Amino acid sequence: MVVAAASNVPTFTLPSLSLGAPVPDWATDLAEPTILVADDDETVRDLVAFKLGAAGYHAITAEDGSTALDMVHREQPDMVILDVMMPGLDGLSVCYELHSSSATSQIPVLMLSGRDRQVDIDLGLTVGADDYLIKPFSPAELIRRVRWLLLANGE
Which SS3 state, helix, strand or coil, does residue 9 take? Predict the structure, then answer.
């Protein structure tokens, strides 16, 4: 007489494909940070925007300080890069305005300037800039500082 052995082969169960609760804010976590670049020099503005885009950021641009302030309130960027010398409302005034308002005071600001004297750098930092980069600058240095400021701000 032949006796059948007990089967030790596990059975396969298909996983459940129910889409119960979605992962909250998953699209926000995947979105690239938005950086506003304000510079009256179109060549510099376009170069910075291009390098930011190549590094995985979403760059938006403004050609003067007034436009930059309007865009900050409308677009709510994760960071702002400001040229110090712009016609009308300059970068120092924009930075001061940003850091004077509770709605925008937490946005990191990187100042760009051809002014390299210590007194100019100190003035930029005094009005609220988080960092100050002197023109001409290396695009790699720009991206390094952007990454550092965004990481320091929790982005």
Answer: coil
Residue 110 has φ and ψ, to the nearest 5°, of: -110, 120
Start-to-end CA span in the chain (Å): 73
Q: What is the largest CA-CA distance in the chain?
A: 102
Cα(64)–Cα(94) distance, rounded to whole angstroms?
A: 10
List the 109-113 sheet strands across, edge first: 58-62, 34-38, 79-83, 109-113, 131-134
User: What is the distance between the alpha carbons of residues 48 and 30, in angstroms, rounded to a whole number?
Assistant: 22
Q: pLDDT digit string (tens) for 46-71? A: 999 999 999 999 999 999 999 999 99
Rounded to 10 degrees, the C-alpha dihedral 11/12/17/23 comes to: 100
134: Cβ–Cβ under 8 A, 6 or more apart, which residues?
113, 114, 115, 116, 121
96-140, pLDDT tens digit by residue?
999 999 999 999 999 999 999 999 999 999 999 999 999 999 999
Question: Looking up tokens 């004297």, which residue turns up?
Answer: 117
For residues 61 and 80, give the distance between their C-alpha atoms in angstroms, rounded to a whole number.
10
